[in-house]
Amino acid sequence: MDNQKTILVTGGAGFIGSHTVKLLLEQGYGVLVLDNLSSGHASAVKSQLIVGDLADKGLLGKIFSEYEIHAVIHFAGSLIVEESVLMPGKYFENNVSNGLNLLNAMTAAGVRKMIFSSTAAVYGEPLQATIDENHPKLPINPYGETKLMFEKILKWYAQAHDLSSVSLRYFNASGAHPDGSLGEDKKIITHLIPRVLRVANRQQEVLQIYGNDYPTFDGTCVRDFVHVCDLAQAHILALNKLESEQGNFVYNVATGVGHTVAEVVNAAMEITKKMIPIEYAPRRSGDPAALVADPAKIKTELGFEPQYSDLNTIISTSWAWHKKLFEREKQKVLSLIENK
Ligand code: UFG
Predict the structure, then answer these.
(1) Catalytic: 91?
(2) Which residue segments constitute the domains of the chain, with CATH numbers given?
(3) Whole-angstrom Cα distance, residue 324 to residue 181?
(4) CB 286 within 8 Å of CB 323
(5) What sequence ranges are listed for the domain NAD-dependent epimerase/dehydratase (predicted)?
(6) At what angle do helices 142-161 and 98-108 cross, to 10 degrees?
(7) pLDDT tens track for 53-106
(8) Whose CA is nearest to atom 20 of ligand 1?
Protein backbone atom coordinates (compact mmCIF):
# COMPACT_ATOMS: atom_id res chain seq x y z
CA MET A 1 0.00 0.00 0.00
CA ASP A 2 1.29 3.40 -0.92
CA ASN A 3 0.78 5.72 2.01
CA GLN A 4 3.18 8.35 0.74
CA LYS A 5 1.86 11.90 1.13
CA THR A 6 1.57 13.75 -2.17
CA ILE A 7 2.41 17.44 -2.26
CA LEU A 8 1.21 19.58 -5.15
CA VAL A 9 3.95 22.10 -5.95
CA THR A 10 2.90 24.98 -8.21
CA GLY A 11 5.89 26.64 -9.83
CA GLY A 12 8.04 23.61 -9.07
CA ALA A 13 10.10 24.14 -12.24
CA GLY A 14 11.42 27.46 -10.97
CA PHE A 15 14.50 28.30 -8.92
CA ILE A 16 13.27 27.82 -5.34
CA GLY A 17 10.53 25.41 -6.42
CA SER A 18 12.90 22.94 -8.08
CA HIS A 19 15.20 22.83 -5.04
CA THR A 20 12.21 22.25 -2.77
CA VAL A 21 10.87 19.46 -4.99
CA LYS A 22 14.25 17.72 -4.86
CA LEU A 23 14.32 17.91 -1.08
CA LEU A 24 10.69 16.73 -0.76
CA LEU A 25 11.54 13.67 -2.88
CA GLU A 26 14.64 12.99 -0.78
CA GLN A 27 12.44 13.16 2.34
CA GLY A 28 10.06 10.54 0.93
CA TYR A 29 7.14 12.71 -0.16
CA GLY A 30 5.29 12.13 -3.40
CA VAL A 31 5.41 15.26 -5.55
CA LEU A 32 3.26 16.56 -8.36
CA VAL A 33 4.44 19.75 -10.03
CA LEU A 34 2.12 22.15 -11.84
CA ASP A 35 4.01 24.76 -13.84
CA ASN A 36 3.28 26.71 -17.03
CA LEU A 37 7.05 26.83 -17.82
CA SER A 38 6.84 30.59 -18.46
CA SER A 39 10.08 31.00 -16.55
CA GLY A 40 10.89 27.55 -15.17
CA HIS A 41 12.45 24.55 -16.92
CA ALA A 42 11.00 21.06 -17.32
CA SER A 43 14.53 19.66 -16.97
CA ALA A 44 14.70 21.03 -13.41
CA VAL A 45 11.71 18.94 -12.30
CA LYS A 46 12.68 15.64 -10.74
CA SER A 47 9.06 14.49 -10.20
CA GLN A 48 5.88 14.18 -12.24
CA LEU A 49 5.17 17.45 -14.08
CA ILE A 50 1.87 18.78 -15.37
CA VAL A 51 2.39 21.70 -17.74
CA GLY A 52 -0.52 24.01 -17.16
CA ASP A 53 -1.66 27.33 -15.82
CA LEU A 54 -3.44 28.37 -12.66
CA ALA A 55 -5.82 30.37 -14.86
CA ASP A 56 -7.20 27.01 -16.02
CA LYS A 57 -9.90 26.23 -13.45
CA GLY A 58 -10.90 23.05 -15.29
CA LEU A 59 -7.37 21.69 -15.02
CA LEU A 60 -7.21 22.54 -11.31
CA GLY A 61 -10.51 20.75 -10.65
CA LYS A 62 -9.22 17.72 -12.54
CA ILE A 63 -5.95 17.61 -10.61
CA PHE A 64 -7.66 17.73 -7.22
CA SER A 65 -10.17 15.07 -8.22
CA GLU A 66 -7.61 12.73 -9.77
CA TYR A 67 -4.86 12.95 -7.16
CA GLU A 68 -5.02 12.65 -3.42
CA ILE A 69 -3.20 15.85 -2.51
CA HIS A 70 -2.06 16.20 1.09
CA ALA A 71 -0.86 19.80 0.92
CA VAL A 72 -0.01 22.49 -1.61
CA ILE A 73 3.23 24.45 -1.84
CA HIS A 74 2.45 27.50 -3.93
CA PHE A 75 5.46 29.06 -5.67
CA ALA A 76 3.89 29.95 -9.01
CA GLY A 77 3.70 33.67 -9.64
CA SER A 78 5.37 36.66 -11.19
CA LEU A 79 8.30 38.11 -9.29
CA ILE A 80 10.21 40.87 -11.05
CA VAL A 81 9.84 44.03 -8.99
CA GLU A 82 10.52 46.53 -11.79
CA GLU A 83 8.19 44.72 -14.19
CA SER A 84 5.43 44.81 -11.59
CA VAL A 85 5.59 48.60 -11.54
CA LEU A 86 5.21 48.74 -15.34
CA MET A 87 2.66 45.92 -15.66
CA PRO A 88 0.64 45.78 -12.43
CA GLY A 89 -2.22 43.95 -14.16
CA LYS A 90 -0.03 40.93 -14.85
CA TYR A 91 0.87 40.76 -11.15
CA PHE A 92 -2.66 41.10 -9.81
CA GLU A 93 -3.83 38.48 -12.28
CA ASN A 94 -1.06 35.91 -11.76
CA ASN A 95 -0.43 36.40 -8.07
CA VAL A 96 -3.92 37.14 -6.77
CA SER A 97 -6.59 36.07 -9.22
CA ASN A 98 -4.90 32.83 -10.35
CA GLY A 99 -3.91 32.13 -6.75
CA LEU A 100 -7.59 32.35 -5.82
CA ASN A 101 -8.41 29.72 -8.45
CA LEU A 102 -5.96 27.43 -6.69
CA LEU A 103 -7.39 28.14 -3.23
CA ASN A 104 -10.95 27.57 -4.42
CA ALA A 105 -10.07 24.31 -6.15
CA MET A 106 -8.15 22.96 -3.16
CA THR A 107 -10.69 23.92 -0.51
CA ALA A 108 -13.51 22.51 -2.68
CA ALA A 109 -11.58 19.23 -2.72
CA GLY A 110 -11.04 19.34 1.05
CA VAL A 111 -7.28 20.05 0.87
CA ARG A 112 -6.54 22.30 3.83
CA LYS A 113 -2.80 22.88 4.01
CA MET A 114 -0.84 25.45 2.04
CA ILE A 115 2.71 26.77 2.17
CA PHE A 116 2.89 30.10 0.35
CA SER A 117 5.93 31.84 -1.20
CA SER A 118 5.82 35.36 0.13
CA THR A 119 8.53 37.97 0.15
CA ALA A 120 10.35 40.64 2.14
CA ALA A 121 8.85 43.04 -0.39
CA VAL A 122 5.64 43.04 1.70
CA TYR A 123 7.39 45.32 4.23
CA GLY A 124 8.31 48.18 1.89
CA GLU A 125 10.85 50.66 3.22
CA PRO A 126 12.33 49.26 6.44
CA LEU A 127 11.68 51.40 9.49
CA GLN A 128 14.26 49.63 11.64
CA ALA A 129 17.65 47.92 11.24
CA THR A 130 16.27 44.37 11.28
CA ILE A 131 12.78 43.50 10.18
CA ASP A 132 10.63 41.13 12.22
CA GLU A 133 7.25 39.82 11.12
CA ASN A 134 5.39 42.58 12.98
CA HIS A 135 7.10 45.33 11.04
CA PRO A 136 4.48 47.48 9.22
CA LYS A 137 3.50 46.04 5.87
CA LEU A 138 3.61 48.94 3.40
CA PRO A 139 4.73 47.52 0.04
CA ILE A 140 6.18 50.02 -2.41
CA ASN A 141 5.58 48.02 -5.58
CA PRO A 142 2.74 45.89 -7.03
CA TYR A 143 4.81 42.72 -6.56
CA GLY A 144 4.93 43.17 -2.78
CA GLU A 145 1.31 44.34 -2.74
CA THR A 146 0.05 41.20 -4.49
CA LYS A 147 1.97 38.92 -2.12
CA LEU A 148 0.56 40.79 0.90
CA MET A 149 -2.95 40.56 -0.55
CA PHE A 150 -2.58 36.81 -0.90
CA GLU A 151 -1.33 36.50 2.69
CA LYS A 152 -4.50 38.33 3.80
CA ILE A 153 -6.69 36.12 1.64
CA LEU A 154 -5.14 33.10 3.38
CA LYS A 155 -6.19 34.53 6.73
CA TRP A 156 -9.82 34.84 5.65
CA TYR A 157 -9.77 31.36 4.11
CA ALA A 158 -8.52 30.04 7.44
CA GLN A 159 -11.65 31.40 9.11
CA ALA A 160 -14.11 30.44 6.40
CA HIS A 161 -12.68 27.14 5.14
CA ASP A 162 -10.38 25.85 7.92
CA LEU A 163 -7.42 26.30 5.59
CA SER A 164 -4.12 26.18 7.47
CA SER A 165 -1.20 27.99 5.92
CA VAL A 166 2.36 29.11 6.38
CA SER A 167 3.50 32.17 4.44
CA LEU A 168 7.27 32.26 4.08
CA ARG A 169 8.66 35.73 3.48
CA TYR A 170 11.90 35.12 1.62
CA PHE A 171 14.69 37.63 1.72
CA ASN A 172 17.31 37.40 -1.06
CA ALA A 173 17.20 33.88 -2.48
CA SER A 174 20.59 32.90 -3.87
CA GLY A 175 23.13 30.08 -4.34
CA ALA A 176 22.68 26.79 -6.17
CA HIS A 177 22.48 23.12 -5.23
CA PRO A 178 25.92 21.91 -3.99
CA ASP A 179 25.59 18.74 -6.09
CA GLY A 180 25.55 20.90 -9.24
CA SER A 181 22.19 19.60 -10.48
CA LEU A 182 20.06 22.73 -9.98
CA GLY A 183 20.41 26.50 -9.86
CA GLU A 184 19.02 29.82 -10.98
CA ASP A 185 18.34 29.92 -14.73
CA LYS A 186 16.13 32.89 -15.49
CA LYS A 187 15.36 34.25 -18.94
CA ILE A 188 15.52 37.79 -17.61
CA ILE A 189 18.53 38.20 -15.33
CA THR A 190 17.99 40.95 -12.78
CA HIS A 191 19.48 39.53 -9.59
CA LEU A 192 22.82 40.74 -8.30
CA ILE A 193 24.78 37.48 -7.93
CA PRO A 194 24.01 36.01 -11.38
CA ARG A 195 24.96 39.35 -12.92
CA VAL A 196 28.21 39.53 -10.94
CA LEU A 197 29.09 36.05 -12.16
CA ARG A 198 28.29 36.93 -15.75
CA VAL A 199 30.81 39.75 -15.50
CA ALA A 200 33.36 37.39 -13.91
CA ASN A 201 32.89 35.10 -16.92
CA ARG A 202 33.08 37.97 -19.45
CA GLN A 203 29.48 37.48 -20.63
CA GLN A 204 28.93 41.06 -19.60
CA GLU A 205 31.62 43.73 -19.57
CA VAL A 206 30.94 45.59 -16.39
CA LEU A 207 28.71 45.36 -13.34
CA GLN A 208 26.68 48.45 -12.70
CA ILE A 209 26.24 49.07 -9.01
CA TYR A 210 22.99 50.90 -8.50
CA GLY A 211 23.91 53.63 -6.04
CA ASN A 212 26.94 54.24 -3.82
CA ASP A 213 25.44 57.02 -1.74
CA TYR A 214 23.18 54.95 0.51
CA PRO A 215 23.49 55.42 4.28
CA THR A 216 25.37 52.12 4.68
CA PHE A 217 29.00 51.58 5.66
CA ASP A 218 30.31 51.54 2.08
CA GLY A 219 27.43 53.42 0.43
CA THR A 220 26.01 50.38 -1.43
CA CYS A 221 22.78 48.55 -0.51
CA VAL A 222 22.69 45.85 2.15
CA ARG A 223 20.80 42.58 1.62
CA ASP A 224 20.17 39.40 3.62
CA PHE A 225 21.15 36.56 1.26
CA VAL A 226 19.70 33.15 2.00
CA HIS A 227 20.81 30.01 0.19
CA VAL A 228 18.14 28.26 -1.86
CA CYS A 229 18.80 24.91 -0.09
CA ASP A 230 18.09 26.58 3.25
CA LEU A 231 14.91 28.03 1.74
CA ALA A 232 13.91 24.55 0.58
CA GLN A 233 14.47 23.23 4.11
CA ALA A 234 12.19 25.99 5.48
CA HIS A 235 9.35 24.52 3.39
CA ILE A 236 9.84 21.09 4.96
CA LEU A 237 9.77 22.68 8.42
CA ALA A 238 6.63 24.59 7.48
CA LEU A 239 4.93 21.38 6.33
CA ASN A 240 5.87 19.74 9.64
CA LYS A 241 4.32 22.68 11.47
CA LEU A 242 1.01 22.10 9.69
CA GLU A 243 1.10 18.39 10.59
CA SER A 244 0.89 19.25 14.26
CA GLU A 245 -0.97 22.57 14.33
CA GLN A 246 -3.80 24.30 12.53
CA GLY A 247 -3.71 28.02 11.88
CA ASN A 248 -2.34 30.79 9.78
CA PHE A 249 1.39 31.40 10.25
CA VAL A 250 3.92 33.84 8.82
CA TYR A 251 7.73 33.66 8.97
CA ASN A 252 10.70 35.53 7.60
CA VAL A 253 13.20 33.18 5.95
CA ALA A 254 16.63 34.76 6.17
CA THR A 255 19.84 34.75 8.18
CA GLY A 256 19.76 38.10 9.94
CA VAL A 257 23.18 38.93 8.47
CA GLY A 258 23.48 41.64 5.85
CA HIS A 259 26.11 42.07 3.11
CA THR A 260 26.59 45.11 0.93
CA VAL A 261 26.61 44.92 -2.85
CA ALA A 262 30.32 45.87 -2.82
CA GLU A 263 31.07 43.05 -0.36
CA VAL A 264 29.36 40.59 -2.70
CA VAL A 265 31.49 41.79 -5.62
CA ASN A 266 34.70 41.48 -3.58
CA ALA A 267 33.81 38.00 -2.35
CA ALA A 268 33.00 36.96 -5.92
CA MET A 269 36.40 38.20 -7.15
CA GLU A 270 38.12 36.14 -4.47
CA ILE A 271 36.12 32.99 -5.18
CA THR A 272 36.19 33.14 -8.98
CA LYS A 273 39.76 34.55 -9.12
CA LYS A 274 38.47 36.86 -11.88
CA MET A 275 38.46 40.60 -12.20
CA ILE A 276 34.95 42.05 -11.94
CA PRO A 277 34.95 45.59 -13.33
CA ILE A 278 32.30 47.82 -11.77
CA GLU A 279 30.83 51.22 -12.46
CA TYR A 280 28.53 53.22 -10.25
CA ALA A 281 25.14 53.94 -11.73
CA PRO A 282 22.14 55.84 -10.38
CA ARG A 283 19.98 54.20 -7.73
CA ARG A 284 17.42 51.72 -9.07
CA SER A 285 13.88 52.80 -8.24
CA GLY A 286 12.22 50.90 -5.43
CA ASP A 287 15.47 49.69 -3.80
CA PRO A 288 15.51 50.12 0.00
CA ALA A 289 18.98 50.92 1.43
CA ALA A 290 19.02 47.85 3.66
CA LEU A 291 16.80 44.79 3.91
CA VAL A 292 17.89 42.55 6.77
CA ALA A 293 15.57 40.21 8.64
CA ASP A 294 15.15 39.35 12.25
CA PRO A 295 14.87 35.56 11.78
CA ALA A 296 14.23 34.77 15.47
CA LYS A 297 10.66 33.57 14.95
CA ILE A 298 11.40 30.87 12.38
CA LYS A 299 14.44 29.76 14.37
CA THR A 300 12.59 29.34 17.65
CA GLU A 301 9.23 28.12 16.34
CA LEU A 302 10.33 25.92 13.42
CA GLY A 303 13.94 25.16 14.36
CA PHE A 304 15.26 26.78 11.17
CA GLU A 305 19.08 26.78 11.10
CA PRO A 306 20.69 27.88 7.82
CA GLN A 307 23.44 25.47 6.71
CA TYR A 308 24.52 26.99 3.41
CA SER A 309 23.82 30.71 3.71
CA ASP A 310 27.31 32.08 4.37
CA LEU A 311 28.41 34.30 1.50
CA ASN A 312 31.24 31.96 0.44
CA THR A 313 28.98 28.94 0.03
CA ILE A 314 26.34 31.03 -1.73
CA ILE A 315 28.79 32.42 -4.26
CA SER A 316 30.84 29.27 -4.79
CA THR A 317 27.78 27.03 -5.38
CA SER A 318 26.33 29.69 -7.66
CA TRP A 319 29.65 29.99 -9.57
CA ALA A 320 29.83 26.21 -10.13
CA TRP A 321 26.27 26.27 -11.51
CA HIS A 322 26.75 29.34 -13.68
CA LYS A 323 29.93 27.96 -15.23
CA LYS A 324 27.81 25.02 -16.46
CA LEU A 325 25.15 27.40 -17.79
CA PHE A 326 27.78 29.50 -19.58
CA GLU A 327 29.28 26.37 -21.17
CA ARG A 328 25.81 25.31 -22.33
CA GLU A 329 25.23 28.77 -23.84
CA LYS A 330 28.60 28.57 -25.62
CA GLN A 331 27.83 25.12 -27.06
CA LYS A 332 24.46 26.40 -28.33
CA VAL A 333 26.09 29.31 -30.12
CA LEU A 334 28.80 27.05 -31.58
CA SER A 335 26.25 24.58 -32.94
CA LEU A 336 24.23 27.45 -34.46
CA ILE A 337 27.37 28.67 -36.22
CA GLU A 338 28.24 25.14 -37.42
CA ASN A 339 24.74 24.57 -38.81
CA LYS A 340 24.69 27.83 -40.76
N1 UFG B 1 22.13 45.41 -7.87
C2 UFG B 1 23.14 46.15 -8.50
N3 UFG B 1 23.44 45.84 -9.78
C4 UFG B 1 22.80 44.87 -10.49
C5 UFG B 1 21.78 44.12 -9.84
C6 UFG B 1 21.47 44.43 -8.52
O7 UFG B 1 23.75 47.04 -7.91
O8 UFG B 1 23.13 44.66 -11.67
C9 UFG B 1 21.81 45.72 -6.46
C10 UFG B 1 20.38 46.19 -6.29
O11 UFG B 1 20.29 47.58 -6.53
C12 UFG B 1 20.12 45.80 -4.85
C13 UFG B 1 20.96 44.54 -4.64
O14 UFG B 1 21.91 44.55 -5.70
O15 UFG B 1 20.58 46.80 -4.00
C16 UFG B 1 20.17 43.26 -4.70
O17 UFG B 1 19.38 43.28 -5.90
P18 UFG B 1 18.60 42.01 -6.45
O19 UFG B 1 17.94 42.42 -7.72
O20 UFG B 1 19.52 40.85 -6.49
O21 UFG B 1 17.53 41.71 -5.32
P22 UFG B 1 16.46 42.67 -4.62
O23 UFG B 1 16.96 42.94 -3.24
O24 UFG B 1 16.13 43.83 -5.45
O25 UFG B 1 15.14 41.80 -4.64
C26 UFG B 1 15.08 40.46 -4.21
C27 UFG B 1 14.01 39.76 -5.02
C28 UFG B 1 12.66 40.32 -4.73
C29 UFG B 1 12.41 40.33 -3.24
C30 UFG B 1 13.54 40.99 -2.50
C31 UFG B 1 13.30 40.79 -1.05
O32 UFG B 1 14.28 39.89 -6.41
O33 UFG B 1 11.70 39.50 -5.35
O34 UFG B 1 14.77 40.40 -2.87
O35 UFG B 1 14.43 40.99 -0.30
F36 UFG B 1 11.29 41.00 -2.98
Answers:
(1) no
(2) 6-174+226-253 (3.40.50.720), 192-223+256-332 (3.90.25.10)
(3) 10
(4) no
(5) 7-254
(6) 20
(7) 999 999 999 999 999 999 999 999 999 988 999 999 999 999 999 999 999 999
(8) 191
